[in-house]
Structures are given as C-alpha cells and as structure tokens.
Specification:
Elements (H helix, E strand, L loop, with lengths): L1 E4 L17 E7 L3 E8 L8 E7 L6 E6 L11 E5 L5 E4 L8 E4 L8 E5 L5 E3 L9 E7 L8 E6 L2 E7 L5 E8 L2 E5 L8 E6 L2 E7 L5 E8 L8 E5 L8 E9 L10 E12 L2 E9 L6 E6 L8 E8 L2 E9 L11 E3 L8 E3 L8 E6 L5 E7 L15 E6 L4 E3 L3 E8 L4 E8 L2 E7 L2 E6 L4 E11 L4 E10 L1
Parallel strand pairs: 31-37
Antiparallel strand pairs: 1-2, 2-29, 3-4, 4-5, 5-6, 7-8, 8-9, 9-10, 11-12, 12-13, 13-14, 15-16, 16-17, 17-18, 19-20, 20-21, 21-22, 23-24, 24-25, 25-26, 27-28, 28-29, 30-32, 32-35, 33-34, 33-36, 36-37
Length: 471
Amino acid sequence: MRRSFLLGPLLLFALPLFAQTTYNFTAYDTDLFAGSAALADLDRDGYPDMAVLSSPENGVGGTVDVFFNDHNGGFGIYTSYVVPSSGRILAVDVNGDGWPDLVISNGNENVNTLLLNNGDGTFHMGTPPTTKASVRSFLAGDFNKDGKVDLAAVEGSQIEILLNRGDGTFTSGQLLPSGSAVVGDFDGDGNLDIVEASGSKAVVWWGKGNGTFTASTQISAPTSDGFSSVAAADFNNDGREDLAISSNYFNGCTNPEDVCGTTTAHIYKNLGGRKFSLVSSYVIGDNLGGILYAADLNGDLNPDLVNLIDAAGVSSGDISFRPGNGNNTFAAEQVIDGDSAFELDFRDLNLDSRTDIMIPSFFPSGEAIVGLVTNGYKNCAGLSSASLAAKICAPANNATVSSPVLVRASGNSPIGVKRLEIWVDGVKTYQKLGDQLNRKIVLSPGKHRVAVVAVDKYMGTSTTAENVIVQ
C-alpha cells in the first residue's frame, strides 16, 4: 500500500530545519519489517530504484522487496525475493556485466546471500560470499585494482577482505580489526583505504593497491568515552576526504528507558600526507549512540552531519541533523522524531539534483519511507542513471565568458557517483565528492577545453567536455 503524507511523526522534516528545505513523504508497505535498503537503477531505465531487505520480527531470514521508480521518484508494487539472510543489503556489480547485483550480509545467521541481476531488474540466486564469521555488513571497492569490485566483510571482531575472481565469486584475503568502517582514498594515491573506529582509537588502513593494507595512522579518541561510528566526506571543500567520528558520553543512568547520555561527532580534517587533525566537535544526539552519516540534505553542496540516534541499544528512528557550512563547522543541532529505523539511505530519486532520503522503517509496521525534496536550490539536474555519465550545465559549449568561470555539473550511474573532477586543457584542477559540482575556476584569456569526469562509486569513469572562450 502506498501512503503519502506531510504530517505525522515526520512533520518536523517540513519545517525550516534543513535550510528551508521541505520534503514530501510517501510510505510504501514492505513484505515484512524493513531493516535495510539499497538505492540503485536496478533495471537501468534512467531512474534509481530501491531494494528493501525486510525480515520477520525475530530477524531470521526474510525477503528482498524490489520497488521500481515511476520516473517521478515514486514507487509501485514490489517484487519479493525470499532470502535466508537478514543483515544489511548492498547494491554492487559483482560479475562485471554492468547491472547492479545485491549482496546481503547474514546478520546472525549462517549464510550470506547474493542476488544476481538478470539484466532487466529481476534477480536469481548466485553463489554467496563465504566468510569466516557472521557478517554485520559489506563494504565494496576495487582493492587490488584489477578492474573487479571486491568486498570487505565487517564481521564481529574483524574485517575480512574478499577479492573478486571476476565472476561474482570471491577468495578470502587479509583480516583487519573490526569496527565501524568506511572506504575511501584518503591519501589520494589512487588506492582505496579503510578507516575503522571502535573503542579508544580509529585506525586508517592504507591500501597498497594489491588487496592488502598497512596501518600507519592511528587516531586516539579525544575522551575516555571512545569511538563508536565513523563517516567520511569533504567537509571543507578542499578535495580531500575528512572524517567524522562519534563518541558516546554515558551520564550514569540506571534506567535504560531514560536518556542516558549524548553522542558527539569529532571532525578530523584531512591534512594530506596521511595526517588528520581534530578541528571541531559537535553534540549530535541526546541519547547514547547512533550511526553517523554525511549527506547534503539542504542542497547547498556542503555535506551535512546526520546521526540516526540509538536509544539504549535500540534504534529509535530519531534523527539529529547539523547543516554543514563547508569549512569543517556545522550549524545548530535539530532533533527530528521518526519511526524506528536501523539505517538511512540518500540519493536523488527524481533527477532534480537534490538529495532525497529513504528510511527503511522497522516498527510499528514494515514500511519504506521515501522523502522527496520539494523546494530548495537546484544545481545541474536531469542526468539519467542508466549508465555512468557526466553532464555540464554551465557554461554552454563555445560560450564567450569572463574569468572566473562558473562550472556547474552533475554525474550519475546505476549505483551512484563517488566524485566529479574538473580538467582544464588536460590538467586536473578540482574535484568534488558527490554527484553535483558548482565551482568557479580562474582561466586566462583565450580558448580552453573544460572537461568534467564522473568517477563511479565503485568502478569506471565517464568524461564530457566543451570549449569556452575567455575574454
């Protein structure tokens, strides 16, 4: 059943919390209790779809409910696939055929699940990744630079690197200590790195480009409360991925139903040279714990801090939000009431250039709640997600312009774009994490070739270019 609303538990989203951004929310019933989701163009018709992992209340087994986009950011009746797993779902092309597949962690069960795309948005069972222990979630990236997407299985006490054979099957590789983890190229050497945070420290495992990692950078927690969750984004727009790492302050409550502490996000600026510096800290949630995210929710192209609040070990679905200022600082905290959820997902679902939000809601009933942005700034819209591509919205090709030249661009792909790059006359001049770019560049008088490169979330690049005449 489809249910649209502006009021109810998520009313506060329609208030001017996100820099005057408002949302129109629609709830879509799922087969069971929704716990995790993946947003990808599963049928490659140009619009992102959603695959929602739902499970019974006891969390044993479940279904993957595939909803196809109606080309307006809405979704119709789902197709359900019974699966033995009920952990977290990830969209990634594991067999290199260009179609998003679905990898599902086993949670506390015995088997992971792999759903292979038939090339039309329908799926069949593949050979699931075999892991050494129960998997909470999967991360992905080409860790050995062989053109195949590998997996990192976040297990109970370790992260197991799974190297892709190229046919959607995997071999076990290096084992790293486990914690909340993110993947990114944090030193800019072209090799993917892994940051894991737990307890008293965070460790940056620097990728060697051959599927193995070395730890040479450790970040000590600034307080005795330790670390609990990590997110990565370019919080100061210098082209480097910074870190937000949360810690939990326990205030001594004995009743688990009470508010028993706060969560603080510590912002670590990437200094280059494999160094990070703590530059600011912000309370982001009045309960103990949560999951940190970085997403541009207000359309100003600055990543914002978002925390899905964990209340006494049970996810409440409440969300704490701080708008980013683009300089490693953040505006005042807003706490938003919501239904119970274990994760948040973000993507432009109707191709208007603005980040929409999707909430897999576990209680009180299984629902996939989609919030489409209804106002706010639009940058460079209208690019299909059917294949990896880049688009330049400004300046126009062969336009005569004055310096500095404003470049507005976007990128898209079935699974999503990691970053956009500006190249002028064959030289890289700027990069912006995410699928939207708005940057003024200084150019000398004369004719120049301006190219924008879209870098896929996991594999591949696409380039578009035009000429400009600077007077």
